[in-house]
Structure to design on (117 residues):
């Protein structure tokens, strides 16, 4: 019985230290999708405005970064590409109903939910 209890305590300590299992249980896909879009818009607006820069800042796969940028329009966040294909960058030209300052004020929470660095 004591061994089983020790294993349970060890497992919980692992979960808390890694926090990935607990975070995934506490946050819906809808919430993480929404936060990912907000975070990407915030990063683009802050100068992390190319796909390679987004990948480096977040660790997300290239396709996820591209799809997230493309999906910003669903929230009326206007993101336009400026410049040439190889040397261009993204720019947020409108935030729609999103309060940009909310993201800034809650950045740590957003990053924690998304499990980014």
């Amino acid at each position: 019985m004591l061994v089983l209890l020790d294993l349970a305590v060890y497992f919980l300590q692992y979960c808390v230290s890694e926090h990935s299992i607990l975070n995934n249980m506490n946050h819906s896909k809808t919430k993480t999708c929404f936060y990912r879009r907000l975070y990407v818009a915030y990063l683009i607006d802050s100068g992390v405005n190319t796909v390679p820069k987004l990948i480096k800042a977040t660790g997300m796969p290239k396709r996820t970064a591209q799809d997230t940028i493309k999906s910003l329009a669903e929230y009326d966040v206007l993101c336009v590409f400026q410049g040439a294909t190889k040397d261009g960058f993204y720019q947020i030209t409108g935030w729609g109903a999103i309060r940009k300052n909310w993201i800034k004020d809650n950045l740590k929470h957003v990053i924690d939910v998304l499990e980014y660095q």
Remarks:
- The domain at 29-114 is CATH 1.10.10.10 (Arc Repressor Mutant, subunit A).
- Residues 7-12, 14-24 have pLDDT under 50 and may be disordered.
- The chain has seven helices and two strands.
